[in-house]
Specification:
The complex is a heterodimer of chains A (336) and B (82). Chain A is of the alpha/beta class. Chain A is built from 13 helices and 7 strands. Chain A has a 4-stranded parallel β-sheet, with helices on both faces. Chain A has a 3-stranded antiparallel β-sheet with strand order 4-5-6. In chain A, a hairpin with an 8-residue loop joins strand 4 and strand 5. Chain B is an all-alpha fold and 82 residues long. Chain B is 57% helix and 0% strand. Chain B is globular and about 35 Å long. The two termini of chain B are 15 Å apart. The model of chain B has no long low-confidence stretch (mean pLDDT 92). The chains are: A alpha/beta (336), B mainly alpha (82). Chains A and B meet through helix 6 and helix 13 of A and helix 2 of B.
């Protein structure tokens, strides 16, 4: 049974009953179900001979890699490790550990020279210097989100750290925000270009690794990590992906790692950059939103007030609207 | 002071609707009418700061100040009077 797909339990008053058990998962059955689906999707529908998985060292790509091995066998899965200048060495090490544990063929390719050549770091740093002119060699950066979880309009702050360790933050004007995001999106798009090179070379399908939270809320780069041929965990909440990781016997370091973006040079949690709440609360908030749980009923389950849950629901709806563009295929004019 | 609404309406019509046929009343929520998305609000804030000489603080980035022509008009007037 996959909790993401069952009808919610309703009380006598018709209101959905909610508890943390809503995200419980029969992992063995789910692995079996996804494995069968992957074989059907890749072999019968897409006519590919195996799968490409880019391993970031995070929980989602590790689980997708393990599922691919269960589905196709290790000899039909090709792993890619694609670190760049701002990648955490820990993430790269974990990705390598997973590739070795899965027993798959893999290739490690540093993409920093490609990103340098295409202007990724220059465009980003030019925009950062518009806000902090002193930013330069030895400085670090990240973007953090604010506003939405408190009922306001989402906006973004640029945080920089000087070589001596002093931190500064300032609200990002829209032009600089867009330029920094556009520049860093090169990272996901270059990675995807390399994934498709190997997919074409081997006649394999590319696996996309979003979980339900990311897929629903638009936490991906269009034509970057959002591009794929199959997305085997896009129906699972992050909590459920962690449960699958443990069930699949992935390395302890992977199972216990906190979700990060691994995109900016300062450490950055996904809830700092995009989501209103840490994933465990955010999963239940999205489950509550989808299943029409009232803020009053959900509040005690995720340790927030009803007013805070109402703000989070508003933020979820706002991000769903923004995600519409990310999910859209090219729009085609109807025939006359 | 009537020109606050007129200027913002013209900006929205030009920048977000781009000559399309969407219409909205002074009290309509931009969010509910799907006129402005989350990135659009950041563009709108920049427009307000550049056009009316106000500085929108982090705490003021709320729908009560920004999510309709009526709300913007009242907000900009309060800021100018302060």
């Amino acid at each position: 049974m996959c909790a993401a797909n069952v009808q919610p339990d309703r009380g006598a008053n018709g209101r959905v009953r909610v508890s943390r058990a809503a995200l419980d998962l029969d992992c063995a059955a789910e692995v079996e179900r996804i494995s069968r689906w992957l074989v059907d999707a890749v072999a019968r529908q897409l006519h590919r001979r195996g799968a490409i998985i880019a391993l970031s060292g995070g929980i989602d790509s590790s689980v997708c890699g393990a599922l691919a091995v269960r589905a196709f066998g290790a000899d039909k899965v090709f792993g890619l490790l694609l670190p760049e200048r701002d990648s955490s060495p820990t993430s790269s090490d974990r990705g390598l550990q997973v590739a070795k544990q899965l027993g798959i063929r893999y290739e490690l390719e540093h993409i920093a020279p490609t990103l340098e050549a295409i202007g990724c770091y220059k465009w980003r740093d030019d925009a950062i210097r518009d806000v902090f002119p002193e930013y330069g060699e030895g400085w670090k950066n990240k973007i953090v989100i604010a506003g939405g979880a408190q009922g306001g309009v989402n906006f973004f702050k640029l945080v920089v750290q000087s070589p001596s360790g002093t931190m500064f933050d300032r609200r990002l004007p829209i032009r600089q925000y867009l330029q920094i995001v556009a520049a860093t999106n090169f990272k996901q798009r270059i990675r995807k270009t390399i994934e498709y090179f190997h997919a074409d070379r081997l006649n394999y399908a590319v696996i996309g690794t979003p979980n339900l939270l990311e897929y629903d809320q638009g936490f991906f780069v269009k034509n970057g990590d959002g591009a794929a041929d199959v997305k085997p965990i896009a129906h699972l909440y992050k909590t459920q992906v962690y449960a699958l990781a443990r069930h699949l016997g992935l390395p302890e370091d992977v199972c216990n790692a906190s979700p990060t973006t691994d995109t900016y040079s300062m450490p950055q949690g996904q809830d700092e950059f995009y989501f209103a709440l840490p994933y465990a609360q955010m999963d239940l908030a999205l489950w509550g939103y989808i299943n029409e749980v009232t803020p009053e009923d959900l509040a005690p389950v995720i340790d927030l007030t009803a007013a805070q849950v109402a703000h989070v629901y508003t933020d979820i709806a706002s991000k769903r609207r923004a995600a519409h563009y990310l999910h859209s295929r090219p729009l085609i004019h109807e025939r006359p | 002071m009537q020109d606050i609404k007129a200027k913002v309406r013209a900006y929205i019509a030009d920048n977000f609707i781009m000559g399309g046929d969407a219409t909205f009343a002074d009290g309509d929520s931009f969010i509910e009418q799907h006129v402005i998305d989350s990135t659009g609000f950041l563009e709108l804030v920049m427009f307000l700061e550049e056009t009316f000489g106000v500085v929108v603080s982090d705490a003021e980035m709320v729908p009560e100040n920004l999510d309709s022509l009526d709300n913007i008009d009242a907000y900009v007037r309060r800021k100018r009077a302060a």
